[in-house]
Amino acid sequence: METERLSIRQITDADAEDLSKVLADSTVMKYSTVGVHSELQIKEYIVKCQQQYDLNGYGHWAIYNSATSEFVGVCGLNKHKIDSGEVVHINYRLAANQQGKGYAVESTFGVLGFAKHTLQLEVVHALIEPENTSSIKVVNRTGFKFIGSSLFRGFEIDVYQVML
């Protein structure tokens, strides 16, 4: 996927070092239900992403700045069960030095376009801890609406959705 400033593509083994800027950063991973990743967990994450591409046609993708090739973060789709049933939800994590530049909103719009036009999805959800105000701002800017609260992996979350 390409957006105005970003290239969003499948994650490869070559992305391991860049992924550590997100997955091994305790500040970036503050609201993650799986926590900070070790080097081994990052390698396992890459394998899982590649399996998801084959299984579902989607997963987490690497985000790079199109002009500079600088690593920005990850954004993608997952399928999980919550109280209301199985949902496809978007999630994103940006490297600390890439936050505050509008990349989360831009990559979210790019992934939602893929979800609508390529995957033919009608709805996408976002699962966000209520204290994660930065992510709430992103989903509000990208058309998601709050629909309720739920438990996910033992965490209290708010559920948002957008109709595509």
Give a verbal description of the structure.
With 164 residues, this protein is an alpha+beta fold. It has four helices and seven strands; from the N terminus they run E-H-H-E-E-E-H-E-H-E-E. Strands 1-2-3-4-5-7-6 form a seven-stranded mixed β-sheet, with helices on both faces. A hairpin with a 2-residue loop joins strand 3 (71-82) and strand 4. The longest helix has 18 residues, at 39-56. The radius of gyration is 15 Å and the shape is globular. 30% of the residues are buried. The model has no long low-confidence stretch (mean pLDDT 96).
Brief characterization of the structure:
The protein is an alpha+beta fold and 164 residues long. It has helices spanning 16-23, 39-56, 103-117, 133-141; strands at 6-10, 60-65, 71-82, 85-94, 123-128, 145-152, 155-163. It is 30% helix and 34% strand.
Category by helix and strand content: alpha+beta
> What do the pLDDT scores average to?
96
Give the overall form: globular
In percent terms, what proportion of residues is strand?
Answer: 25-35%
Main beta sheet strand tally, sense and closure: 7 strands, mixed
Q: Cα-atom Rg, whole angstroms?
A: 15 Å
Portion of residues in helices?
Answer: 25-40%
The low-confidence parts are none
Number of strands: 7
- Number of helical segments? 4
Through-space gap between termini: 17 Å
